[in-house]
């Protein structure tokens, strides 16, 4: 969708063709721009082969799929079962539990993942020393390149009851008398995941906002200063509106990903005591789908995820369009 | 050094990445030469046996093999030289098990030439990716035939499908155990401190740990941990739940307990004795003797703790903490290594660790992806020959062992020292022990035609492998090996149903779903029962059992009972109702 829209936009702007000649005019334009079209062909083929052809696999969700003799799919031999897999899915209590976990963690992730990097970028932008600024920026995005396996190790160690920094600090300050086993408390799991995500991604996510802020016309700030605006007023009335477009585009896109948050962090950080809070949709698809050869069931889960994602994306886009006149489609 | 701008740093990193990538690319070169030495299946035996042209076979192993050195070790080079075969191997990582990887293979149909699938072979069989080895063995593999001989029946897949899909390689045929690696473990220093008291029941175990930690609350400046268990993923079965049946006198039948009279199977947690075992663990936790991190820590943290030497007691199998113990040995901290005891809940139970299941295990299977299965089975057969077995177990003559004037194989002292004290590097450099599961082998205690044992584990060698501290402990208990402390194989009849954790289960229908659900419940509720307050334990445990039945455990057990009965009749030829 996103790939195609710039093309369409370009078309419109280049040829404000009168209504009656439209059919002919369009052909003419295409002919005129044939090289441009030819250049886009490989990408359309690529998109089709890698993004649309695999969707044929969705048929699995309506079958009782068995991996066939050596080859990918002997279509005619599969047994069709209609919506049975979806019915089973919606009847499973565990599904609602993991759906709750998924949504909770991704909503928390979105809130923290927007507010903190934006604030960070704005404040960082206000700093004077160029060297200091650069260093802070580099240091802050480095954790992005650390794999979740390592991050999980660090987090577990920090929250450990024995020599864990967090417990040591809390005890040292006298907030608690006994170390807390953070990793064993299910209800804290969402918070721990969100916090480690913030630690890992804040710097990285701030990059795009810093770039957007750099694009704001300096004259606006000068004018504001002349009018007597202080630092915070400038941030509020110039910087924030200046990056509003970026924020809404990113927000719409991440709402599209709301339900498909992956499972890496949950998988790494979880343990048997907190599974009721840590299992997310993708893990559920792994445990109750692929791991026990229920490929059809796994596919049904992924179709559900995709459909919900598209709906969320369209809704978010529509709402944004209405509210701020900004959208990605 | 200061980086002038991010670009120069990035360039350097890129250059490094390319350099590393380039180097590792070089290692894969021989793989291009695959398939040049293709032999038709109809070519004569002797002619093909000499076919040593270079060939590469791809392989996946469901168990992690951290010391695998891409056949660049001494034994590996020798194998390639002799047979022309290079194994391009990939192993599962971390805690291993290979489940995820193998399921993906089943779904995509992309398999290596041969595979060690452990518990997940049936998925590949159902996907039609595994070939029947029976005709290949019959025609091309005299050595394999010799090793399995009367146990061929036990290699068959099921009553309905009597194909042989895998040869058992994770256990030696005719194995007699000389050493025990399981039971309950206690550090040598703890035993020494209290003059080597008798350790028979969990009470004895608890008391000695308690006394020691009270006396020495710190080890090398860090708090002493009386007992820790490993509950990371499937390791919870080995270290937390399996000991429940071992300590209450039942043999290992995976997640089930099978009644030897009626062959009725039930989830072993339902045995009332086991509830008492978990009550004891609950008590250990309440007393502060069980590590608070037990159900939170990961496999590597568990090992790191043990390697620090401050864990007094374990309930695990030696292979589960071997790496950590090796680290202790390398550091010269012998007194921190562990002794093994057949501890049971009370004295009325006997540890059944050594009840034999007969030949029944996981092993090597050949897939439909293998372009030349004949060459491959011949390679496996060569590994199973006397020459191959001695090579895999002993190494290269003149290098890793010598033959004395009486024709006895002897391991020189300096090699033996390295084997014990520098085990990791030794395995990487020499490759001894790295090729064990690639083909069939005779177990400990079987002698070859020269009158030597096939494996390096025979009583004298095992004793030679012990550290001084271990020998001291054993002497105090009037034993020469840990096995001497355990009830032996001859005290129990071999199980007619083999090893149930190897029994293929149906991959369609509800069985797998219910099993997965019960596993989820077990892995969640057992820790909960152990961590709850003692007065609450009964309620949590009873709820746990009720929850199992609610998830369909009864139906699952009934289905499993049927499978067990069928298996007994496949293995023994008995008719069972």
UniProtKB/TrEMBL annotation, chain A:
Task: Please give the InterPro entries that the UniProt record associates with this protein.
Answer: MetI-like (IPR000515), MetI-like_sf (IPR035906)
Cross-referenced PROSITE patterns: ABC_TM1 (PS50928)
What is this protein's name?
Sugar ABC transporter permease
Among the Pfam families in the record, one is BPD_transp_1
Bilayer topology term = Multi-pass membrane protein
* Residues passing through the membrane, by range: 35-53, 103-124, 241-263, 295-319
Write out the similarity annotation. Belongs to the binding-protein-dependent transport system permease family.
| Single Gene Ontology BP annotation | transmembrane transport
Where found? Cell membrane; Membrane
Q: Spell out the residue ranges making up region: Disordered.
A: 1-20
**Main localization (coarse):** membrane
Print the keywords alphabetically.
Membrane, Transmembrane, Transmembrane helix, Transport
Q: Which GO terms describe its cellular component?
A: plasma membrane
What are the residue boundaries of the ABC transmembrane type-1 domain, all occurrences included?
99-316
List compositional bias (Polar residues) regions by residue number: 1-16
UniProtKB/TrEMBL annotation, chain B:
Query: What keywords are annotated for this sequence in UniProt?
Result: Signal
Give the range the annotation lists for the signal sequence. Answer: 1-25
Transmembrane annotation, as ranges: none
SUPFAM superfamilies, per database record:
Periplasmic binding protein-like II
Chain intervals for the UniProt region annotation (Disordered)? 27-50
Name recorded for this polypeptide: Extracellular solute-binding protein
Q: Name one Pfam family in it.
A: SBP_bac_8
- Asked if the Swiss-Prot or TrEMBL record annotates the protein with the keyword Nucleotide-binding, the reply is no
Q: Which domain of life is it from?
A: Bacteria
PANTHER family the record matches: ARABINOSE-BINDING PROTEIN-RELATED, DIACETYLCHITOBIOSE BINDING PROTEIN DASA
Q: Where is the composition biased (Low complexity)?
A: 27-45
